[in-house]
């Protein structure tokens, strides 16, 4: 007989793990699947904005009260009472997994790749399982999303980890060359994560690599011989519930295209879906507010595509100010 679970969560990233945490020690049987046998790094700058929460996560992080935004050659500085942290995705995953380690109702299968969804069954490399509810938290190329027949719109990120030190987070916008894309420098404890995010419809990958190489040189850094990593970011939001199937995080398109922020949105969507599963009447206020923020940021980003000459003022006054306004509103309700 097929083994049945009340909830199957596909993907043990921030969205899947935060969803599982909401369901721990309840009367529900939960299966958490991940295709990897060990937690691994993901294409990501590793920034945790105040939206992410997780104030108890300190080990392996760096804290930055100052962040700089460069619009062409002009610099804008943020000094915030709500600092941004950097953390490796492995450290983050291990922290989140530790919060459900002793949950008796959650079975965690590592190395179990999702192959297909048929009706109320998930077919995996470890066998077939039945579900009452399925949560697709399986990333930007989500197989659950594909099985639902939903479209994808992908941005790309390329980065390398340079053995260098820095004292501030910086994001660099150069609309004339990379349109609504951006370059970044995110200092971690053991490296400087430096990369480029871009729309492949506007900028080809070889061009993006050249721009990133020039940027690294301009910053006085050396990346020769270092491995360039990368991957897609799905920003196409088309809903988070489809009958008994939910989508969370990158699988739901919960990534902000103009800023590249995905971890915070993944954590919020995972938590909110977990609460919705437990209480079907739960109105999901946090995910609705996050979606409003994402929509406003992407409206500003579309202005950058159309009017790159005036995008500096738009980007500064619309995208980033909205982010912090959202944070203040959210924290005021806690």
Could you explain the architecture of this structure?
The chain is α/β, with parallel strands linked by helices and 334 residues long. Helix content is 31%, strand content 31%. It has eight helices and 16 strands. The protein has helices at 14-23, 89-98, 143-147, 175-178, 205-218, 263-278, 285-306, 311-332; strands at 3-10, 30-34, 47-48, 61-71, 74-87, 106-110, 114-118, 121-124, 127-136, 154-162, 169-173, 182-187, 192-198, 229-234, 241-242, 245-247. The strands form two sheets. Strands 1, 2, 6, 7, 8, 9, 15 and 16 form an eight-stranded mixed beta sheet that branches. Helix 1 links the parallel strand 1 and strand 2 (30-34). Helix 1 (14-23) packs parallel to helix 2, helix 1 (14-23) packs parallel to helix 6 (263-278) and helix 7 runs antiparallel to helix 8. The longest helix is centred in the C-terminal third of the chain and has 22 residues, at 285-306. The N and C termini lie far apart (45 Å).
Secondary structure layout plus pairing:
Blueprint: E1 3-10, H1 14-23, E2 30-34, E3 47-48, E4 61-71, E5 74-87, H2 89-98, E6 106-110, E7 114-118, E8 121-124, E9 127-136, H3 143-147, E10 154-162, E11 169-173, H4 175-178, E12 182-187, E13 192-198, H5 205-218, E14 229-234, E15 241-242, E16 245-247, H6 263-278, H7 285-306, H8 311-332
Parallel strand pairs: 1-2, 1-9, 2-6, 4-11, 9-16
Antiparallel strand pairs: 3-5, 4-5, 7-8, 8-9, 10-13, 10-14, 11-12, 12-13, 15-16
Helix pairs in contact: 1-2, 1-6, 6-7, 7-8
């Amino acid at each position: 007989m097929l083994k049945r679970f009340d909830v199957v969560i596909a993907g043990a990233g921030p969205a899947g793990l935060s969803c599982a945490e909401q369901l721990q020690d309840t009367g529900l049987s939960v299966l958490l699947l991940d295709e990897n046998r060990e937690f691994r790094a993901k294409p990501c700058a590793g920034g945790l904005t105040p939206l992410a929460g997780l104030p108890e996560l300190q080990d392996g992080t760096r804290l930055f009260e100052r962040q700089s935004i460069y619009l062409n050659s002009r610099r804008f500085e943020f000094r915030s009472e709500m600092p941004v942290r950097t953390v490796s995705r492995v450290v983050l995953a291990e922290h989140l997994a530790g919060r459900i380690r002793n949950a008796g109702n959650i079975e965690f299968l590592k190395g179990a790749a999702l192959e297909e969804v048929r009706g109320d069954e998930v077919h995996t490399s470890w066998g077939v399982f039945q579900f009452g509810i399925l949560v697709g938290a399986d990333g930007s190329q989500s197989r659950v999303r594909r099985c639902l027949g939903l479209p994808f719109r992908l941005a790309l990120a390329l980065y390398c980890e340079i053995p260098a030190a820095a004292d501030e987070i910086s994001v660099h916008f150069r609309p004339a060359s990379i349109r609504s894309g951006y370059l970044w420098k995110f200092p971690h404890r053991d490296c400087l994560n430096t990369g480029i995010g871009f729309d492949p419809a506007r900028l080809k990958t070889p061009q993006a690599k050249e721009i990133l190489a020039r940027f690294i040189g301009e910053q006085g850094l050396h990346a020769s011989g270092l491995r360039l990593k990368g991957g897609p970011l799905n920003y196409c939001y088309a809903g988070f519930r489809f009958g008994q199937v939910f989508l969370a995080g990158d699988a739901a398109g919960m990534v902000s295209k103009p800023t590249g922020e995905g971890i915070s949105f993944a954590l919020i969507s995972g938590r909110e879906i977990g609460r919705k599963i437990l209480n079907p009447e739960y109105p999901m206020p946090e995910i609705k507010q996050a979606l409003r923020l994402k929509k406003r940021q992407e409206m500003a980003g579309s202005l950058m595509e159309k009017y790159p000459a005036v995008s500096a003022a738009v980007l500064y006054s619309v995208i980033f100010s909205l982010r912090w306004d959202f944070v203040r509103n959210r924290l005021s309700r806690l």
